[in-house]
Specification:
Layout: H1 2-8, H2 13-25, H3 32-39, H4 43-55, E1 61-64, E2 69-72, H5 86-98, H6 108-119, H7 124-134, H8 149-161, E3 163-169, E4 178-190, E5 193-200, E6 205-210, E7 214-223, H9 232-235, E8 249-255, H10 257-263, E9 273-276, E10 282-288, H11 292-300, E11 305-309, H12 311-328
């Protein structure tokens, strides 16, 4: 029973087999008992690993009766890896392309290094397939932010070490900066913008801060305890993207055939319901707690989208559309 419990918490089989490969490759003729002692498993487990390496990986492992140990009957350059499936290779490629979203952040270099380590284990055929597939797939993030690396480093350190963070912040459209003292909870990239979710100590509430309007950050020596109940997904559940409101709204938007073709097949919000309408159009329904972001989104569709409800959203869209039209109205005599 003791051995069973001990083996349950040892390294995975793949790690064990790599260690066994290294020992055999040194030409020291290790036996199952000595390797089992180092790996903290039973000799029977080591023998099963060796059988697997020989039968499944095709490694030329033999046992020398005179030297009481295992050896390779011919040179083995490297430990083989299991062949990747087409789905796994595609997933690896998508991960590589998605790194483009982290350009200019502290995550770019470690992500790139991790990808190179993974692909370095592929054989020549797999690398060739990955390179060819890569020519047919790309990520083009729309207007990615030019991230300030120093801001990222300070914030990620404060997040990691649970330190109170201070910085200057400028609200949207404002000209003056305000000093903020916060408990940083979470950092997220949403719609190609980076946001910090933090508890604002002066306002005693959770606030969302855009990193491009954040300056002179500094992590203090004071530490804090992050609430166990904070969940960014739950916090943003009623938002269209990141801006929170105080009222619940059932938003209903109708699209013509052109707009419906672009709306279908995408998840715009977790609460969405999309139904087809006569003539090829569609009706989109969502439950949101704010209207500012959805107003801008509706306006971006031009004449292809019409707000059915709520009335407050219809009024906002109508007023903004009227103001936009006024900017382009020709003046008499011009």
């Amino acid at each position: 029973m003791k051995n069973v419990l001990r083996e349950k918490y040892t390294r995975p089989p793949s790690d064990r087999m790599r260690r066994i490969h290294e020992w055999i490759g040194r030409g020291k003729y290790p036996n199952a008992e000595t390797m089992a002692l180092e790996l903290e498993v039973s000799a029977r487990t080591v023998k099963r690993d060796i059988e697997f390496m020989r039968d499944r990986y095709g490694l030329p492992i033999a046992y020398d009766e005179k030297r009481y140990g295992y050896y390779y009957t011919k040179k083995v350059d490297q430990f083989p890896v299991a062949a990747m499936t087409e789905a796994e290779m595609f997933a690896l490629l998508v991960a590589d392309k998605a790194i483009a979203q982290y350009h200019g952040t502290p995550f770019q270099k470690p992500l790139r290094m991790a990808f190179l380590k993974l692909t370095g284990q592929l054989d020549g055929r797999e690398r060739y397939s990955l390179e060819n597939l890569g020519l047919a797939l790309s990520f083009r993030p729309f207007a990615p932010e030019d991230a300030d690396l120093n801001v990222f480093r300070v914030i990620t350190r404060a997040l990691r070490e649970r330190r109170v963070l201070v910085f200057d912040y400028r609200k949207l459209g404002a000209t003056k900066w305000q000093r903020r003292h916060v408990h940083p909870y979470h950092l997220a990239c949403i719609d190609n913008h980076w946001y910090l979710f933090a508890h604002d100590l002066d306002r005693n509430a959770i606030r969302t801060f855009v990193l491009t309007r954040l300056a002179k950050p500094g992590a203090t020596c004071e530490r804090f305890a992050k609430p166990k109940g904070f969940d960014p997904d739950k916090y943003l559940a009623g938002c269209f993207t990141v801006m929170k409101g105080e009222e619940e709204h059932e938003v209903v938007i109708e699209f013509d055939g052109w707009g419906a073709d672009l709306v279908r097949g995408r998840v715009w919000h977790s609460s969405q319901a999309l139904t087809d309408r006569a003539g090829g159009g569609a009706r989109l329904t969502m439950k949101l707690n704010g209207l500012e972001e959805i107003e801008r989104w509706v306006l971006s569709w031009g004449a292809h989208a019409r707000v059915v409800g709520p009335a407050a959203l219809r009024d906002r869209v109508r007023k903004t559309a009227s103001a936009v039209a006024g900017l382009y109205r020709e003046k008499a005599g011009s």
